Amino acid sequence: MDPLIIALYLAGIAHFGILIASATAPKALNWKVHLETLPLLLRQMFWVYGIFIVIMIITFGTITLTFAAELAEGAPLARAVCIMIAVFWATRLLVQFFVFDAKPWLTTPLYKIGYHGLTIIFIFLTTVYIWAVI
């Protein structure tokens, strides 16, 4: 099998792995307490934005697992989809490196492993979709 197609299947699976890790964020970051101090509209917006991100990650994973061979072929639409997904994950990496300050939250070895593991997955996803574009 084509190595790019294999990488795309792994990328598709990785999206769902990210969702599993993301499901632990509200408890790990104590959202209930911290969001309580925000006005209702801001709390609602926070949750809506989070849900939209989850929907996008589900969509990326589903499209990739369903159409890995087509994404690897490099048709214009496939390239456009791969560019969009690569930009999404590259932007997420930039935010992780230059915006988020996670150090106060990395209080246990498990949190540190999870944080760095997600960073590796974001790099992998960005790389795979750039590979599919070129």
Briefly, what is this?
By secondary structure, the protein is mostly helical. The chain contains seven helices and no strands.
Residue fraction in strands: under 5%
State the helical fraction.
over 70%
Pattern of helices and strands: HHHHHHH
Give the N-terminus to C-terminus distance in angstroms.
18 Å
Radius of gyration: 16 Å
Whole-number count of domains: 1
- Which word captures the global form? elongated
How is the biggest beta sheet arranged? none
Task: Find the structural class using helix and strand composition.
Answer: mainly alpha
| Tally of separate helices | 7
Q: Kindly report the average pLDDT value.
A: 96
Q: Unreliable runs, pLDDT <50, ≥5 residues?
A: none
Q: What is the count of β-strands?
A: 0
Structural description of this entry:
It is a single chain. The chain is mainly α. The protein has one domain (3-133). It is 83% helix and 0% strand. It has 7 helices and no strands. The protein has helices spanning 3-22, 25-28, 31-36, 40-66, 68-73, 76-98, 109-133.
Summarize the helices and strands and which ones pair or pack.
Layout: H1 3-22, H2 25-28, H3 31-36, H4 40-66, H5 68-73, H6 76-98, H7 109-133
Helix pairs in contact: 1-4, 1-7, 6-7
Give descriptors for this structure.
134 residues, mainly alpha, 7 helices, elongated
